[in-house]
Amino acid sequence: MKRFDELRDLVMSLEADFQKFYDKGNQAAGTRVRKGMQDLKNLAQDIRVQVQDMKNKA
Predict the structure, then answer these.
(1) How far apart are CA 1 and CA 21, in angstroms?
(2) pLDDT tens sequence across 31-47
(3) Which domain holds residue 34?
(4) I want to staple 17 with a disulfide (CB 3.0 to 4.6 A). Which of 32, 53, 54, 58 is the partner?
């Protein structure tokens, strides 16, 4: 569950940058959003692998 909490915290931390990019057109916020989404993808993949490993051990 710790990994899920990390995932949720990451998504929540991106909210302000999403608003700045989409509502105000702030290009720097768009860069931060892209970086955050890449981090999100990597974290999700790590969780997926961990779940698969636990499933295979059971």
Answers:
(1) 31
(2) 999 999 999 999 999 99
(3) 2-53
(4) 32
Query: What CA–CA distance (Å, rounded) separates 56 from 12?
Result: 31
Number of domains in the chain: 1
Q: Indicate whether 48 belongs to any domain.
A: yes
Assigned domain for 58 exists? no
Task: Render each residue's pLDDT in the chain as its tens digit; 58 residues.
Answer: 899 999 999 999 999 999 999 999 999 999 999 999 999 999 999 999 999 999 999 7
Q: Where are the alpha helices (DSSP H) in the chain?
A: 2-13, 15-24, 27-57
Q: Does residue 30 sit within a domain?
A: yes
Three-point CA angle 16, 38, 2, nearest 5°:
80
